[in-house]
Design a protein that fits this description.
Layout: H1 7-28, H2 30-49, H3 62-146, H4 153-163, E1 167-168, E2 177-178, H5 180-189, H6 199-202, E3 207-209, E4 219-224, E5 227-236, E6 239-245, E7 249-254, E8 262-265
Parallel strand pairs: 1-2
Antiparallel strand pairs: 3-8, 4-5, 4-8, 5-6, 6-7
Length: 267
């Protein structure tokens, strides 16, 4: 048999090799398919023309196909790893921003609470200082009242009775006219006791006493202790002397005429 008559017998094995390369190329991905197409083009053309001397088509070995497939998988793995890293970085950045915001809010809250506590402490210290100052002033007044310089109740009462009938004038301190605290200040000054000028501090200038246990010379007040709006002096027999108002002037009246709120003992 001539060489030309044997050509058809070579085509079938070549076609089998192409099928093997095609399957390998599909396994290797796009890169393998492109390589397979380029290699198979001359062989396809040879099959149509069927020349006497046909060149064998290059085939891809299993090793080459596996290499292409491995390269494709490696490339895909790199892309996936990059995408996953980007997603992880974005998630981490978002979480860090959330934690930073949370910490900032907690710090702001802590500072606000600290400021509030500091303000409360400052206010409490100021109030304590003011109370201490008042207590010191009260103690000083009490001390002065407890040790009058040569005065006595009789002198005090004598002075008060001498003022009855004089005028009441707001802000007056004598000798022709008085307001309520001006009269009491002038009266206690006769026996060496220096009272404050107004009724509010006068109402805390001695030792508090019950209205049921009054003694002549006790200072009476109307309103709250430390916030009294009127003062007078108890003269005994259930009566007091005081500069009442501009209508009555300085009068002596029974306690029932205008019941006082409280009293302090300054003599």
């Amino acid at each position: 048999m001539s060489p030309k008559a044997q050509i058809p017998s070579h085509r079938k094995p070549r076609s089998s090799k192409m099928n093997t390369a095609l399957r390998a190329g599909m396994t290797g991905g796009v890169m393998g398919t492109i390589a397979l197409t380029a290699a198979a083009a001359p062989a396809l053309a040879a099959d149509k023309n069927a020349p006497a001397d046909t060149v064998e088509m290059p085939t891809l070995s299993t090793a080459d196909s596996n290499a292409l497939a491995a390269e494709s998988l490696h490339h895909s793995a790199q892309q996936y790893s990059l995408q996953q890293a980007q997603q992880d970085a974005a998630t981490e950045a978002k979480q860090e921003a959330k934690e930073t915001k949370k910490k900032a809010e907690a710090e702001a809250k802590r500072k606000a609470e600290a400021k509030k506590k500091a303000e409360a402490a400052r206010k409490a210290a100021a109030e304590a200082k003011e109370r201490a100052s008042r207590s010191t002033e009260r103690s000083s007044l009490t001390t002065n009242a407890a040790a009058p310089q040569g005065g006595n109740v009789a002198t005090l009462l004598s002075f008060l009775r001498a003022q009855v009938g004089k005028s009441y004038v707001m802000g007056a301190t004598g000798p022709s006219a008085y307001d309520c605290s001006g009269l009491t200040q002038a009266a206690y000054k006769q026996v060496g006791v220096n009272l404050p000028r107004t009724s509010q501090p006068q109402s805390t200038a001695g030792t508090p006493v019950s209205l049921d246990n009054l003694q002549p010379g006790d200072l009476l007040y109307w309103g709250g202790a430390g916030s009294a709006y009127h003062v007078a002096v108890y003269v005994g027999g259930g009566k007091f002397i005081g500069a009442q108002n501009s209508s009555t002037g300085i009068v002596e009246r029974p306690l029932s005429y205008d019941q006082p709120t409280g009293a302090v003992r300054v003599l």
